[in-house]
Design goal:
5 strands, Cytidine Deaminase, domain 2, alpha+beta, 5-stranded mixed β-sheet
Length: 131
């Protein structure tokens, strides 16, 4: 992957649309497909917190709704001054589409860390566990 900065900028732009009236914690994500398309998402909170949607799953829902299922990387930014790793649910949902996806945790387009999804979720639940 050669354009993490573009992904981070797209995630930052998406973060501006965050609906986070309860936590005021804004998150943006940009998912890149293996075919080179970009899909963004932001967090959408709900007063029933379990009904809230994370930015990562928001981007994924957009991509899958548009027929994409092969992903290269996801960039994640937040309104905090810290790197923002995906929550456990997002890690599991992303892993459905491949463990080798790059996860870019960014503070800015120039300050970021890159992980393989498998590093962040070493023991995922998968189809074989249901048999």
């Amino acid at each position: 992957m050669d354009n993490y900065e573009k992904m981070i900028e797209l995630a930052q732009s998406a973060m501006k649309n965050s609906y986070s009236p309860y936590s005021d914690f804004k998150v943006g994500a940009c998912l890149k497909t293996t075919s080179g398309k970009y899909f963004v998402g932001t967090n959408i909170e709900n007063s029933s917190f379990g009904a809230s949607l994370c930015a990562e799953r928001s981007a994924l829902a957009s991509a899958v709704s548009n027929g994409e299922k092969n992903f290269e990387a996801i960039a994640i930014v937040s309104s905090s001054n810290n790197f923002c790793p995906p929550c456990g649910i997002c890690r599991q949902v992303l892993s459905e589409f491949g463990d080798d996806m790059k996860v870019i945790l960014a503070k800015s387009p120039k300050e970021y860390a890159v992980y393989n999804l498998s590093e962040l979720l070493p023991h995922k639940f998968f189809e074989g566990d249901m048999k």
